[in-house]
Amino acid sequence: MYVNIQLMHLGKVREVVVENEDGGHTVFIDDRLSEEGRRKAYTHAMKHIKEDDFGKHGDVGAIEREAHKNAPEGELRSSQ
Questions:
Q1: Looking at the predicted structure, is the pLDDT value of residue 6 above 60?
Q2: Strands 3-8 and 15-19, bridge-based pairing
Q3: Strands 25-30, 15-19: parallel, antiparallel or unpaired by DSSP?
Q4: Is residue 73 part of a domain?
Q5: Residue 75 in domain
Q6: Residue 7 belongs to what domain range?
Q7: 27, 54, 64, 79: which sits with the fewest CB atoms below 10 Å from its CB?
């Protein structure tokens, strides 16, 4: 498995994760974030990858709330 990181202007979101055809992932992180913000966005994206959230079906909001659950204070604030 590999993770490709790309910085780009994303608008209102901090990061977007895409599952690639070959099983890897690409994480797009908003280039306007501070270094700290980029680190938090990366950590949040990696949690989704490790939890295999791409194979889950259902309410995206519920999946997102679960990703934020039990996060260290300040680590995973809203990515919206």
A1: yes
A2: unpaired
A3: antiparallel
A4: no
A5: no
A6: 3-68
A7: 54
Instruction: Give residue-wise pLDDT tens across range 30-76.
Output: 999 999 999 999 999 998 898 887 766 555 556 566 665 655 555 54
- The length of the chain is 80
The answer to whether residues 6 and 26 touch, using CB atoms and an 8 Å cutoff, is yes
Q: How many domains does the chain have?
A: 1
Q: Report residue 57 as tokens.
A: 């079906």
Q: What is the pLDDT of residue 21?
A: 92
Q: Are 29 and 14 in contact (CB under 8 A)?
A: yes
In angstroms, rounded to a whole number, what is the distance separating the alpha carbons of residues 30 and 13?
A: 7
**Does residue 27 lie in a domain region?**
yes
